[in-house]
Write a structure and sequence with these properties.
Two copies of one chain form a homodimer. In chain A, the strands form two sheets. In chain A, strands 2-1-10-9-8-5-4-3 form an eight-stranded parallel sheet. In chain A, strands 6-7 form a two-stranded antiparallel sheet. With about 280 residues, the first copy, chain A, is an alpha/beta fold. In chain A, about 45% of the residues lie in helices and about 15% in strands.
């Protein structure tokens, strides 16, 4: 089963555009877990188990594990997701970007060591930096296109041809040259809906990973209106902190579930409003 | 002691522009080491000890360790370099690029966990993706500018303003906005000397990390002519495979030393030819 078919099934089964980002900041892990041998794993596992029926994907952010030397807990977490919640794709948020044999090593890190179904990549080094990942044809390759942070505009919004900005060129290349096996997707932030809509126009039905709702403040209705496909799907709308840290006591998993449920429902309602019909109707 | 002052001292002490890249491909580690408990560490340590007096820096590539789940061997290697060869800066080649609290985690990975003196970063996400690293004012921040791979031109060579290409904009931003504490450097490949010369014109005396000689085929004379500062220094010219795999038997460390010596001497001679004087004169 490929990443894209797995994702399509997950969208349908869960009727959800929500992707829960797993960014476990050690300082914010509830006190009750901190004395455990594997607190990062335990925290993330509880979030995963409390939200699995509400999501189309999980997105662990490797930096939080790497800073703590806790790669083994990341391995255990992804193993847990695959074993306990089969069919939910795991996107490893790593934003790697390198060339040749180094890129081969990073592909191995993501796909073989961590068994991720997809990985995020940075396109600055161009086509041959992506090829080692594209050879894993059953996995997803999700390229940074337009990011939602203030500095995102420094390079991404530069005009590289009349009427074409750098992020639009990335979107076009992602369609025309960087997707030979149908496994490519893009990261487009939620903070500027017009740009999200523009990427959707360029890439047709390609899946989009959309961070920036929740803690980063993107508007759900405008995001869904701009980024959805005609079938009401096509987006992994990612929320991390607003869900992970919805509660900070022993009931953190219940609080996370409630926050995920609210976000899923808000996304569902936004799809319905934007189309006049339910995505299932 | 800051990264830049450490590097300046190393240039002077070793009279060398050579940076040895530590890219330990498990398939190419000599058979005699493979049965050891920590073969990647043992291999790299032997290379480091055989070449330390010939280099201005070491550059371990984290992907090779990560793919094998061998981060502990990378930690041990950098600890060894600092303990046994103090004063030689360690550049962690990681090409990270992310925002906000995630970038803080990556900075911690590079500077706290691995104790790197500098780290390579990808500028695609712009200023706020760099700030968490710049706050470690004693460490170096080395930004991808123009890479030497074929796909490097896909985005980096696009014209973003009349007469200004994307990599030139990165060089200009690195000078004007992304170097508040004097710790910033750039990665510029050796394969197109005109572009290296153009970056040198833009950035003045900023240090440049220059991969692409050796296995990637850049010409040493043209590279040095294009990238050197007036004082004959200013470059870390990186070579990995041509040194690491100069031999494949039990004498691999001797072969690596000879290859490093030849490269150092070729760089010295190129500096001399390009300036008409010895860099020490």
């Amino acid at each position: 089963m490929t990443f894209v078919s797995m994702l399509s099934s997950a969208w349908q089964r869960a009727d959800s555009l929500l992707c829960v980002g797993l960014d476990p900041d050690p300082k914010r892990i509830p006190a009750g877990l901190r004395a455990r041998p594997d607190p990062i794993f335990e925290f993330c596992r509880a979030i995963v188990d409390a939200t699995a029926d509400l999501v189309c994907a999980f997105k662990p952010q490797i930096a939080y594990f790497a800073a703590q030397g806790a790669e083994d807990q990341l391995e255990a977490l992804i193993t847990h997701i695959h074993a306990r919640h089969p069919g939910i794709p795991v996107v490893l948020d790593a934003k790697r970007g390198d060339i040749g044999s180094t890129a081969e090593q990073y592909a191995r890190e993501a796909f073989e060591r961590f068994q991720a179904d997809a990985v995020t990549l940075n396109p600055y080094l161009g086509q041959d930096s992506l090829e080692p990942y594209l050879q894993w044809t059953d996995r997803g390759v999700i390229l940074l296109c337009r990011t939602s942070n203030p500095g995102g505009a420094d390079l991404q919004s530069l005009e590289v041809a009349p009427g074409e900005r750098l992020y639009e060129r990335v979107a076009r290349l992602a369609c025309e040259r960087w997707n030979p096996h149908g496994q490519t997707a893009l990261v487009v932030g939620a903070t500027v809906p017009q740009e999200l809509a523009q990427v959707r126009r360029i890439v047709g039905d390609m899946p989009l990973l959309v961070p920036g709702i929740g803690a980063q403040g993107g508007d759900i209705d405008a995001t869904v209106q701009a980024g959805r496909r005609a079938d009401g799907r096509g987006m992994m709308v990612s929320s991390s902190r607003a869900i992970l840290y919805a509660g900070d006591g022993d009931d953190f998993a219940d609080a996370a579930r409630q926050a995920a449920l609210d976000t899923r429902d808000a996304l569902r309602a936004a799809v319905r409003r934007s189309s006049g019909t339910s995505p299932r109707g």
